[in-house]
Fold each of these.
Amino acid sequence: MSQDKILLAHGSGGKLTHSLIRDLFLQRFKNPILESLGDSAVFGIDKGRMAFTTDSYVVDPIFFPGGDIGRLAICGTVNDLAVSGAKPLYLCASFIIEEGFSQAELRDIVRSMKEAADEADVQVVSGDTKVVSKGSCDRIFITTSGIGLLPDGVEISPLRIKPGDQVIISGTIGDHGIAILSKREGLTFQTEITSDVAPLNHLVSSMLSEAKDAVHVLRDPTRGGLGTTLNEFVNNSDVGIRIYEERIPIREEVRGGCELLGIDPLYVANEGKLVAVVAKDAAERILASMKKTIYGRDARIIGEVVHKPRGIVTLATQIGGTRIVDMLSGEQLPRIC
Amino acid sequence: MSQDKILLAHGSGGKLTHSLIRDLFLQRFKNPILESLGDSAVFGIDKGRMAFTTDSYVVDPIFFPGGDIGRLAICGTVNDLAVSGAKPLYLCASFIIEEGFSQAELRDIVRSMKEAADEADVQVVSGDTKVVSKGSCDRIFITTSGIGLLPDGVEISPLRIKPGDQVIISGTIGDHGIAILSKREGLTFQTEITSDVAPLNHLVSSMLSEAKDAVHVLRDPTRGGLGTTLNEFVNNSDVGIRIYEERIPIREEVRGGCELLGIDPLYVANEGKLVAVVAKDAAERILASMKKTIYGRDARIIGEVVHKPRGIVTLATQIGGTRIVDMLSGEQLPRIC
């Protein structure tokens, strides 16, 4: 079965590298731009504003309920482009693989990447593979980068937030983090908790089509969770955000998992959710447009932008109190993405 | 001294991540696009042909004579863009760091990245940092991706190679691979062998300014070395390449190192060299333009494109024989880049 293992020579740049590229990556990601196999992908582009981003994915375990590192690596980067307001176009993927890693698992991961790329309607146009010796990395790390174009008139920035704006979350929070953690810790629940990992670009398109100018800021609350993302919106600004605990959608089993693990769901990573701050007068329309899409069907308005306290996120609790939601300090869940 | 160590929390997405970004990455890479700190970098772009590429850097050791993983990560991606004929514009950088890694070393690496980026005249506009637990990666891996624009009329492709074309190497071969290997193995030579790691975009600019249409193909012979790169040019094509051993520039100490290690310099990685195939009638002019630049001053014509044998690279040896230069098989030097 040694033929099923990734060898150091697969990363040498020589014959085995070429066969891995030809038989796996080209085969799977099949497109004319990738097939030219130059040192860079080359394609035509229109004048305009471009978004460019990168993320490394080191999730552990690499296969988890609802997804795997491959789907995560595509969706994560697609989502970073989408929440910038851009239409994602092209991705690159770079693999760091531990010697001895299973080629069958690599094929599964690459297939999953291709499926996610198809769903998001993006192409993987360039890549790289490095193999390191046994023990020099934990199985496989994938770094994806992506580019997209911003439609005219889209202006997504925390600077546009103003009092009265409504805060929308596209669905339940904490699913990804708790799915990973329960798999890692061997916890079982009556209903399996699955990751929400999904490409959000079509959801963003719907929102922008509905009311382009009214979408002030968007972000996907991954590491650090909803709590940290909301803080990023208002820290150093002269407005605050107030959210209402009772409105925040959260699955019963995720809530249970959080209680069991002693974790606040506000800080748990999501990989298929976005939080939007939108103009008040367009909020209901935008919400309705979200609810028509597969990844926005549980969207809810969970709060609003307030004058005071400035620079701070507050939570109105179910029992009638108010507490400050700070940025996550320390590491809650390592290698969640 | 524990404050000098990278902690898992530096990768959490929370407070420590934000302070690392603010105090190190923003501080160093300072530019308005990066400073907006959105999920993607956003910038204006002209209509045209774009090049997009990515590479992961896992070099061991991370500091070596002539450079470090940071300089390598910038130059490698700049060079992939440059040899596509593109003018590199923007880079993203993604870090995977082992828990406990020295913050001082990270600062050194980032400073070195900034210096290389300045030399290449590119900006680092977005990034990501993941921290994995002790033992889950070997110190630090960096993945960079980059975009650039291709000037009109530049057409770099192995498909353009034709018999009579001249093969040019921009300088001595094998310096990077032997520098890494001697450091790793603790070999010492009378003269220290230093890596050639350097950004080649200004060199490529000079060549294209001299005779844009005459530059048929360019590539930087990194992993797999000159031998593998030349094979990539002609494999599956109906021409061959013939090179002359006596014309290939190689430092005495590198030749000595190769002999000692039992390695063929034709397969040793370079990180500051390019090989070009150019139209015969423009070859001398292009060579002269290369020799005027810092990284092209030792450039030489080392061979030509021939009718036969097709699809194969042959080497005329110094003792008058001919041998086939195949693509590298197996792994010669793991983690060379």
Note: Chain B has nine helices and 14 strands.
Amino acid sequence: MRITICRREHFNAAHRIYRKDWSDERNLAVFGKCSNPNYHGHNYDIIVKLTGEPDPEIGYVMDMKVLGDVIKERVTEVYDHRNLNLDIPEFADVMPTAENIVVKIYERLRPHLPAHLDLAITLYETERNFVEYAG
Amino acid sequence: MRITICRREHFNAAHRIYRKDWSDERNLAVFGKCSNPNYHGHNYDIIVKLTGEPDPEIGYVMDMKVLGDVIKERVTEVYDHRNLNLDIPEFADVMPTAENIVVKIYERLRPHLPAHLDLAITLYETERNFVEYAG
Amino acid sequence: MRITICRREHFNAAHRIYRKDWSDERNLAVFGKCSNPNYHGHNYDIIVKLTGEPDPEIGYVMDMKVLGDVIKERVTEVYDHRNLNLDIPEFADVMPTAENIVVKIYERLRPHLPAHLDLAITLYETERNFVEYAG
Amino acid sequence: MRITICRREHFNAAHRIYRKDWSDERNLAVFGKCSNPNYHGHNYDIIVKLTGEPDPEIGYVMDMKVLGDVIKERVTEVYDHRNLNLDIPEFADVMPTAENIVVKIYERLRPHLPAHLDLAITLYETERNFVEYAG
Amino acid sequence: MRITICRREHFNAAHRIYRKDWSDERNLAVFGKCSNPNYHGHNYDIIVKLTGEPDPEIGYVMDMKVLGDVIKERVTEVYDHRNLNLDIPEFADVMPTAENIVVKIYERLRPHLPAHLDLAITLYETERNFVEYAG
Amino acid sequence: MRITICRREHFNAAHRIYRKDWSDERNLAVFGKCSNPNYHGHNYDIIVKLTGEPDPEIGYVMDMKVLGDVIKERVTEVYDHRNLNLDIPEFADVMPTAENIVVKIYERLRPHLPAHLDLAITLYETERNFVEYAG
């Protein structure tokens, strides 16, 4: 009996999409207004999904309050009210596209969640643009 | 050609998460405020998903109005405005965690839905906490 | 220059709508399934609105983080995961209808918010049923 | 490393569910008010999901702005503010059930999206009724 | 003590915005794609708001279940799955703009709701376009 | 007959809340993480409300498509994907708090909307924090 539990958390951050090795013109041509030099920002929503068998004693796949605390400690309190490009080490040389952010969130969380549970993450950049990654 | 149809229904119920064979202290330590003795409650949302080939004559995998009626008759009208622990037989000896509720909903619905269609259920306890089960 | 700031918070609680001085039959006839004896529950959302002039030095009508803390301390941490009828003193002899809950929330908050700001509260019992009160 | 990107778009359209070779009575018996002769309508939401490896140079599976433009050009600007039965060729002899619409949207989009990316589509007819199709 | 109670209901309908005494060209120039000849449609949401003093005996301004039944009987079951222009008498000679629909809903409801309660209505045509009317 | 029409638009932007004439320590003490030096950001939603009599010939208070175009031209295309502090002149010496942003949006829109219509604006910084201003 495999069940998936899902927990939503959020953070607000600034970012900019551009390659440092490209000219401003080329960045603008490829990334459009996402490359504007002074950053823009988003209210990011994360949904963390864990799949496995419930613990027979407590009836939980994992306590969602504990899961929420892990997400907060490892991801949202780190990213919240920050500039992803300037303040977060993993984006020093990796562009903070939604695709790259969801992978980095996965890497931050995977070691701190039970190894026998499958992990998948959905990251909403806006209500219209979101990404999913399952390792 | 396999298509998934999805129908959302809802119910409002009270519940409490605790083990009868544990002390109040142990229940509080493990389940926190979810074990408060006088119950709390939620607006539960269910999404029922059925996957299969559409009927070529009517273009439906299943009539969603009929699907909604099955969900109401078998689940939401039974659970709505009830105390899951006290009023619903399947939770007399099973804690009504989201994980256990979604399994019981699956068991209630599976015999009353077409056998050739795959069934999966998502249960929202809140906007932030939800679970998925596919049998 | 008058501006309204709005802050959303939430709590989950059980309740039951019935008059102690009425028979079960009469309660059922008037209040329907809301009077079921073992309680049901909701995910309640509150929006607290304060109207006044922004402080010229900090540009805030009131710091929304502080406003959120007042709402949590005075209302949502008190009501959350509780049975409104049994656990909350102001509903010992007052039925916890949405109308009465929003008035009690107003009375809990008014003394702890700046007196020069107008207060209005919206309480969502479900997405479909909600109430507003402004003192 | 496979990631899914998701883009939401919408259109508003009229439709009617009925078989031309059936009597009005039979259509009403099978399709209910969805067969009313003068049409009704919906705000349709589409979520288009593409799965594959991000381009290492730009960090995108596909530019979501470009994906949005393809959806608009091939689907939503064609269907928007139209009568699906009368104005859209693919529904001249196919009933515009949600199941059939999502398949036709898939067929419209598949040739114009990168062949190495897997495509799945979710179509919301209402918040309560939606369908998913992945080819 | 004045409290506002709010009830949300919905209906799905087709409509077309055009003046019969204008040419198709002029209608297109003024109303754009809203004047397309074969109609389009929407998922309409209504919020009905009633303001007054709660009944001291039952703690309700008005029973929201009863309010919902009045809205269904007088408005949503009449308009649902209909073509507003062709099927609904009050739009035979009045264009079903959101502004006109909300006024007609008000006129349909006002005689069937308690006269001592103030009535206001919000009508959502889409999530982005909505109107409010209070008589 | 006065009706209110409401139009929702959005923009994504970076900002920082701090006084230039205060030390970093004082800014941090008063504004918390909102004063982080490298900015953060939000998905801002605006609802613009106009109240007045519908034009008897076209049945609109104002064409919502035209209203949307005015909001885009005067506000959202100017603010979108920008740093409010660095890129937008009116925030060069005014902190971009939600209160100040909603006032500046009002000032940007008022001259370009019909003078006989009352204007009110709601600005959502997040789903939990929003402000309203009516001039």
Note: The two ends of chain B are 22 Å apart (CA to CA).
